[in-house]
Design goal:
flat, 7 strands, 6 helices, 3-stranded antiparallel β-sheet, single chain, alpha+beta
Length: about 170
């Protein structure tokens, strides 16, 4: 990605810097220009550090993520920050192995038609008892079976001096 300042720098021999910097502050351009050498140095050190990260990552068989790579580099005497290691691993596409698998708890029926969203995120009611909502909660029991708890809510239309009252919880038992 090229910055606006790089565009100004590329065309400064053809046009005035003042004219090229109509959308940005001219002093910001000169500050950016002063930091070109520092950015180049940082990019060189980032490439060197990325090579060290690849070595540690390769020694682990590709398993280590940024926290463990940081610890290994610190053991080798390198002063590094975990956030910088994480940034470099993202930049250079170095990823650790994720051992945790995502558990899919619900398998939808592909033939089933989608249920319409009747509330459209509007939970206010004109009068008490007009809108009811619910949530199904599965509670694990001994023996591996599940129990279903269905609390319901009703939106209350009562008003007070502080504004509309919050949603009232009504148990479904």
């Amino acid at each position: 990605m090229r910055s606006h300042f790089q565009f100004v720098d590329d065309h400064r021999n053809t046009y005035e810097v003042k004219r090229l910097c109509q959308d940005v502050n001219r002093s910001s351009y000169y500050e950016w220009l002063a930091g070109v050498e520092a950015r180049a140095t940082r990019q060189r050190t980032d490439r060197i550090l990325a090579q060290e990260i690849r070595e540690v990552h390769g020694e682990s068989g590709g398993a280590y993520g940024s926290p463990r790579v940081t610890a290994e580099l610190r053991e080798k005497g390198r002063r590094v920050n975990e956030k910088r290691i994480a940034r470099l691993m993202r930049t250079f596409s170095i990823t650790g192995i994720r051992l945790r698998r995502r558990v899919r708890t619900t398998v939808p029926d592909p033939a089933a038609s989608p249920v319409p969203h009747l509330f459209q995120r509007d939970f206010t009611a004109t009068e008490p008892g007009r809108k009811y909502m619910g949530e199904i909660t599965y509670l694990p029991l001994t023996g591996g079976e599940s129990s279903i708890s269905r609390p319901c809510w009703t939106a209350s239309a009562a008003r007070s001096s502080a504004g509309p009252s919050p949603t009232t919880w009504v148990p479904a038992w």
